[in-house]
Design a protein that fits this description.
- This protein has 391 residues and is α/β, with parallel strands linked by helices.
- The protein folds into two domains: 156 residues, Rossmann fold (3-Layer(aba) Sandwich); 208 residues, Rossmann fold.
- 40% of the residues lie in helices and 18% in strands.
- Strands 3-4-5-2-1-6-7-9-8 form a nine-stranded mixed sheet, with helices on one face.
- Strand 3 and strand 4 form a beta hairpin.
- The chain starts with a strand and ends with a helix.
- Bound molecules: 2'-deoxy-thymidine-beta-L-rhamnose.
- The site of 2'-deoxy-thymidine-beta-L-rhamnose (TRH) has 19 residues, from helix 1, helix 10 and helix 11.
- 2'-deoxy-thymidine-beta-L-rhamnose binds next to helix 1, helix 10 and helix 11.
Length: 391
């Protein structure tokens, strides 16, 4: 089948990150995908295999990833340039495909039209997943939009998880991990503890690096902190400039380049503790099965606090009480949801030893989530009846 995926980049990397993962996953299952995006610039590092070429009609297309063609959003806005729509049209996060494209969709046997929503673990997701909305006006009048909600429970659309994920993780043995880290410029040894950081500007990262440095001094083992570009690197530099000599030496900071998506996933597998931000990375941290802290995208009206707690509830299901409270306190502090004394990050549960509670609970949460059918499997089944016109 041919899928048209529409993506508008609002802010940050999550919109394109999810749409790219979805497109690549569909392609890996033998589907053909056109990814329409208004700003493809992040693909230069997220999917560097994509190269741009101009066809004989002057249209630009990003090619290089088997099964996926990246197209300029603007080309779907000009009636004379709009191609025949595919079998399924995915509108990511209510991004409103261009009118010229909607006109073409409005044919006797229209494509399945699916609005892929943001991931949340809150209760409304089950109530909203699968709802339809008839369109009464405009170029799409008479068509129906179907709402597809990713989620953690059986009555939701599941999480993006490639069919070969487990095999790739198994192939990432301890030797492979150390080799991969060396190639990244991180000369880690097996006894070295690693922390990755991908966060927003508001993160209390200085407090946390101070606490991690104190921990490293107590354990007398090296701790390396792997910093993604942007806020994490900037905040860590600021901490480093002000930290005392002993603390500064206790942490070895590494400033990483922006990594291709599969390498970003490996970063999370390679570390013992991951600090991640945004929904897509939160899911990847879950698949990594390692202790993690989620820096949620902050919203002005504060609704992110409930969203954060709903995520926590899922991930901590079955965890013992002391661990649950300590992890909750850590997540809340990192997200500015608790008042702690300035400069003090809460004590973290043990994330260093493979067999301690937090790493174990993280592996269990990952296993539990794998029991659910993944998002692309569910999306294909969801769209199929509408494609054949029987839905
Ligand atoms: O960038 P984000 O903060 O995106 C956010 C959220 O999606 C949020 O919900 C949304 O409303 C807001 O944007 C507008 O975090 P997220 O979702 O984790 O997306 C980051 C993507 O970047 C993810 O696909 C992983 C990818 N990535 C790499 O591929 N390589 C890297 O080196 C890094 C740091 C990230």
């Amino acid at each position: 089948m041919l899928w048209d995926v529409f993506c508008r980049v609002i802010d940050n990397f999550g919109d394109l990150g999810v749409c790219w993962r979805l497109s690549a996953d569909l392609a890996a299952r033998g589907q053909r995908v056109r990814l329409w995006v208004d700003d493809a610039s992040a693909l230069a590092w997220m999917a560097p295999e994509v190269v741009w070429a101009t066809d004989e009609s002057g249209r630009e297309a990003g090619v290089g990833h088997a099964g996926v063609t990246v197209r300029r959003w603007a080309d779907a806005e000009q009636a004379e340039r709009v191609p025949e729509p595919g079998d399924v049209v995915i509108e990511a996060f209510g991004c409103d495909p261009p009118e010229a494209f909607l006109w073409r969709m409005n044919r006797p046997t229209p494509p399945a039209w699916v609005n892929l929503e943001y991931l949340s673990a809150e209760d409304y997701v089950e109530r909203s997943h699968g709802l339809q909305s008839p369109v009464f006006n405009g170029p799409a009048a008479g068509l129906r939009k179907h709402f597809f909600y990713p989620g953690f429970t059986p009555r939701t659309g599941g999480l993006l998880r490639e069919p070969d994920l487990a095999a790739r993780q198994r192939a990432f043995t301890e030797d492979a991990r150390l080799t991969w880290l060396r190639q990244l410029g991180v000369p880690a040894t097996a006894d070295c503890r690693l922390v990755s950081v991908f966060c927003y500007a508001t993160a209390p990262l200085g407090d946390w690096l101070g606490a991690l440095a104190d921990e490293a001094l107590r354990h007398q083992g090296p701790t390396r902190v792997l910093l993604t570009p942007g806020h994490a690197t900037r905040l860590a530099r600021a901490w480093h400039d002000l930290a005392g000599g002993e603390r500064r030496q206790a942490l070895i900071l590494h400033e990483l380049p922006a990594l291709p998506q599969p390498e970003f996933d490996r970063l999370l597998w390679a570390c013992h503790l991951n600090i991640v931000r945004g929904e897509d990375s939160a899911v990847r941290a879950l698949w990594a099965g390692k202790p993690h802290i989620w820096h949620i995208y902050p919203q002005d009206d504060g609704v992110h606090a409930d969203k954060l707690d709903a995520f926590l509830d899922h991930w901590l299901k079955g965890a013992n009480e002391p661990l649950s409270s300590a992890v909750r306190a850590a997540w809340h502090h990192f997200n500015g949801l608790t008042q702690a004394a300035a400069g003090l990050a809460p004590a973290l549960p043990d994330w260093r030893r493979h067999d301690s509670d937090w790493p174990q609970a993280s592996r269990q949460a990952s296993q539990r989530a794998r029991a659910q059918a993944d998002l692309v499997t569910q999306l294909q089944a969801f769209a199929a009846p509408f494609v054949t016109g029987s839905g």
